[in-house]
């Protein structure tokens, strides 16, 4: 029993370290790709927001607009371009395609994993800044 408890405790510590690292990556990716429009704090007040013809949304209220639940799948789909992008382009870049091109893995599978990892990291970061 003691061994099982120690094993579980070790797994939880390892998992929390991975999640913390993912949150750090999410912040880094957000700052690099999103903050210029959405602002460093996610409120939509980035330095380019006033130059946009479309209203830049406040990303800190996504959960509040969704009955207190963070709409993880919807957020992922908007970031990677599966939804929210019109046929001739939308107000937001399609980051899924950009991340795929950055991968450099040499394989489609590796490119997909790289892209989805970045998108998921940003989505986790956004979940953490909800008001």
From TrEMBL:
GO MF entries: electron transfer activity; heme binding; metal ion binding
Origin superkingdom: Bacteria
Keyword terms, alphabetized: Heme, Iron, Metal-binding, Signal
Signal peptide interval: 1-20
Entries under SUPFAM superfamilies matching the protein: Cytochrome c
InterPro entries xref list: Cyt_c-like_dom (IPR009056), Cyt_c-like_dom_sf (IPR036909)
Coiled coil listed as a keyword: no
Stretches assigned to the Cytochrome c domain: 21-130
Pfam families, sorted: Cytochrom_C
Entry keyword DNA damage: no
Gene3D superfamilies for this protein: Cytochrome c-like domain
Record protein name field: Cytochrome c
Organism: Thetidibacter halocola
UniProt lineage: Bacteria, Pseudomonadati, Pseudomonadota, Alphaproteobacteria, Rhodobacterales
